[in-house]
Structure formats: structure tokens, C-alpha cells
Amino acid sequence: MSKAKGYAAAVKDAPLAPFSFERREPREHDVAIDIKFCGICHSDIHQTRDEWNEFLPEPSIFPMVPGHEIAGIVTAAGNKVTKYKVGDKVGIGCFVDSCRTCPECKRGLEQYCAVGMNQTYNSHEKDGSPTYGGYSDKIVVDENYVLRIPENLPLDASAPLLCAGITLYSPLRHWNAGPGKKVAIVGLGGLGHMGVKIAHAMGAEVTVLSQSLKKEADGKRLGADHFYATSDPKTFEKLQRYFDLIICTVSADINWEPYLFSLKVDGAMVLVGAPEKRVPLGAFPLIAGRKSLAGSGIGGIKETQEMLDFCGKHNITSDIELTPIQKVNEAYDRVLKSDVRYRFVIDMASLKNA
Ligand code: NAP
Ligand code: ZN
Ligand code: ZN
After folding, report:
1. Mind listing the domains of the chain with CATH numbers?
2. DSSP one-letter code for 134
3. What is the DSSP letter of 64?
4. Which protein residues are within 6 Å of ligand 1, measured from CB?
5. pTM of full prediction above 0.90
6. 336: Cβ–Cβ under 8 A, 6 or more apart, which residues?
7. Does the pLDDT of residue 354 top 80, yes or no?
């Protein structure tokens, strides 16, 4: 075992504070990674506060070292590792293992593993030991769950691709975003701004639906063709039957019905935002126009690599605000106020001073 340093929530709702723990020595298929940067995903906040307890089989596990948007450099590789070598630029996303034998794992949909993926934190390894995430100096992961970050992309702004990027790329691909398609991205936060960039690069017409017009100039710069405030009732009047696809990244419980009325016949609204509470919904917005309401979770390893290569080709990274780890609790407060442009990334060099 080797000593690792990070920041953890000791119990539910506790502010994050310095935490020491151990990482395993690399096994024959493992790579050891020096973590350089880790994005702050809204899911980190939901989980440190155990906000999903109504929906998940187990309560959150503490102490919790969050972080599943990890970018770093390989420092050691087990003797059977073939995919990576010391010095490679790599990333780790939301899971570090899965059963590998169920139909979903075999199809490359490890995120929907029938027995449950081993998540990067707030979860367990197959041997039962707790997983600790990327708000830390190093991590050891089986090479089959490690992603390659394209050489032309900077590590810091690539970190958010590992969750925010793939969470939007996967449904945009699945529901065929591309030329001739009208796509709405609801919520211009960490996930949403990646959705705008990726959908634009795929060739779709992109509309941002945000609470206000405060982020309009940014939205257009990121690649949006249109930008509307959802607080303005005229927005939904104007947009009746407009979209082929709506991807909702909102972290809070909102009324989905007006959005459903802005879909064309046969359109789909895909939820990726994971609010804490249940949202009541009538059947009529769906019946009127054979519409689908769907959900989507991150992406499998193969598709995550495809997304990273797509981003490499199109030179897409996240718009980030670098923060020292000592300011992580302030960063959480700002994420909760939708006051981040557009993803906080922790500079792990700051951990040396922790
Ligand atoms: P974020 O940066 O906080 O962005 C969420 C955005 O939602 C905000 O920027 C805001 O956009 C909008 N919003 C927030 N509160 C709202 C409210 N009360 N009413 C309307 N809009 C509101 O969060 P994120 O990291 O992108 O994550 C978003 C959600 O996705 C979280 O619930 C997270 O857990 C979930 N998530 C899901 C997956 C998955 O696999 N499905 C993966 C990662 C994250 P505007 O300011 O533009 O209105
Ligand atoms: Zn995430
Ligand atoms: Zn499986």
C-alpha cells in the first residue's frame, strides 16, 4: 500500500477537509496515476450531502473523497499492462471497474452493468474496499478503465470531459444530434456548456434554455445559435413543437411539462440532471405528439474514448476556473448558486500545501 493525500467529507454534509488514506500497489493490469487535475461535478455535491438516498440502494459512504473527472500522468504500470506506459496523459471517469461479464459490460455499456459498476468514489472495489475519488494526489486503476487524453488537449481543461463531456456526448450520439436537428440544452452549467460545444461540433442547431439571459453572450460564444430565458413565459409560447431533442442538465427539480410541449412530434427529452426530489408529470404532454421522456447516464469506456478523440479532433475542452483544493467548499457554494463559468477544476499541485 502507498500513502495518499486528499480532501474528504468525514460525514454527510460535512465540509471537505484534509484526509490521509492508502492506495493499493499496482497489480499486474493496473496503472498508477499522478492526479494533476480533478473537475468538480455537481454529483460530488449531491453525494457528499447524500441527496440521492431515496433513489439509491445504499446511503452515501463516508469518509468520502469525491472526484470523478480525473486527469493525470501514468507513473507506474503493472507487468501485464499493454495499453499505457509511464508518462502517458490519462483520465479516469465515474467508474474504475465493472463485472465485465453481463450483457451490458460485453456491449461496452459498463455504466449500466447489471451488477452495478464500481464507481470511482462512494462505492466499493470488487474486494469490498471503499473507493476514493480524484480530490487526491494519486490513484491506481485497472488499465481497461483508464482513458487516453489526446496529446493536443491541455490536461486541466480536459478533466471535465471525463464526466460532463461524456454525459452529454452519449445521448447526443444516441439520439442522432447532427445536421438538420434542433437540439436544446437546458441549464448552462458544467454539463450544459459541454453539451453546447459538442452538439455544435456535431452540426446540430443548438438552443440554450437557461433560467435568465445572464449567460447569453457566453452561450453564443460556446456555439449556441439561440438562447432563451425559461423565466420568460413567452419562451415556451414561441418554442411550441420546435425541438427534435432536449437534453436537461438541471440539478434541481423543475416542471418538465413546458419543455415537453416544445418538442416536435416524435421528439425526445433526455434527463441527465439528477435532482434530489421526484417530479410529478402528467401523461398528456407525452401523448400529444408521441414524445419520449428518457434518461441517460455517463457513457461506457469505448464511447468515452470515442468522445475524447472527437474532442481532440475538434479541439474541444471545458471552460474552467482553476481552484486550489483549500477553496473546494467555496467552490461548492458557487456551483449551488449556478455561479461557475463553467467548471471548477482543482489544481492538485495545491495539495502539497494542505
Ligand atoms: P451545474 O454546473 O450546477 O449546472 C446545473 C445548471 O442547471 C445550472 O448551471 C443552471 O443553469 C441550472 N439550474 C440550477 N438550478 C436550477 C433551478 N432551480 N431551476 C432551473 N435551472 C437550474 O451542475 P452539473 O455538474 O452540470 O450537473 C448537473 C446535474 O447533472 C446534476 O444533478 C448532476 O448530479 C447530474 N449529472 C448526471 C450525470 C449522468 O450521468 N446522468 C452525470 C453528471 C452529472 P442556468 O444558470 O443556465 O439556468
Ligand atoms: Zn459527474
Ligand atoms: Zn457488468
Report:
1. 2-162+319-353 (3.90.180.10), 164-295 (3.40.50.720)
2. S
3. B
4. 41-43, 46, 163, 167, 187-192, 210-211, 215, 249-252, 254, 272-274, 296-298, 335, 338, 340
5. yes
6. 45
7. no
